[in-house]
UniProtKB/TrEMBL annotation:
GO terms for molecular function: carboxylic ester hydrolase activity; palmitoyl-(protein) hydrolase activity. Residues 4-71 form the Phospholipase/carboxylesterase/thioesterase domain. The keyword Endoplasmic reticulum applies. Belongs to the AB hydrolase superfamily. AB hydrolase 2 family. Its main location: membrane. This is Acyl-protein thioesterase 1. Acts as an acyl-protein thioesterase. Hydrolyzes fatty acids from S-acylated cysteine residues in proteins such as trimeric G alpha proteins or HRAS. Acts as a palmitoyl thioesterase that catalyzes depalmitoylation of proteins, such as ADRB2, KCNMA1 and SQSTM1. Acts as a negative regulator of autophagy by mediating palmitoylation of SQSTM1, decreasing affinity between SQSTM1 and ATG8 proteins and recruitment of ubiquitinated cargo proteins to autophagosomes. Acts as a lysophospholipase and hydrolyzes lysophosphatidylcholine (lyso-PC). One of its GO terms (cellular component) is nuclear membrane. InterPro entries: AB_hydrolase_fold, LYPA1-2/EST-like, PLipase/COase/thioEstase. Keywords: Acetylation, Cell membrane, Cytoplasm, Endoplasmic reticulum, Fatty acid metabolism, Hydrolase, Lipid metabolism, Membrane, Nucleus. SUPFAM superfamilies: alpha/beta-Hydrolases (SSF53474).
Length: 76
C-alpha cells in the first residue's frame, strides 16, 4: 500500500536500457507505475536509454549525478 510519513515524498530516479535482455523495459515501466501508487508520483522519474542493454552508460551516470546533486546536500 501507500507509504506514509516523510518517505511518501522521497524522490526516486529509475533508469532502464531499452535493449536490456535480462530485465525487459516493460518490467521497468510496470515497476515505475507501481511506485507512483505508493509515493508522490510527481517525485518519480523514469528514464530510458536508447540502445542500452543490462549495463550503464555515460548518459545514465550523468543523469544519476544530476539527480544526486539536486536531492542530496553537498558534502563539505
Amino acid at each position: 500500500g501507500p507509504i506514509s510519513g516523510v518517505n511518501k515524498d522521497i524522490a526516486v530516479l529509475q533508469c532502464h536500457g531499452d535493449c536490456d535482455p535480462l530485465v525487459p523495459v516493460m518490467f521497468g515501466s510496470l515497476t515505475v507505475e507501481k511506485l507512483k501508487t505508493m509515493i508522490n508520483p510527481a517525485n518519480v522519474t523514469f528514464k530510458t536509454y536508447s540502445g542500452m542493454m543490462h549495463s550503464s552508460s555515460l548518459e545514465e551516470m550523468m543523469d544519476v549525478k544530476q539527480f544526486i546533486d539536486k536531492h542530496l546536500p553537498p558534502v563539505d
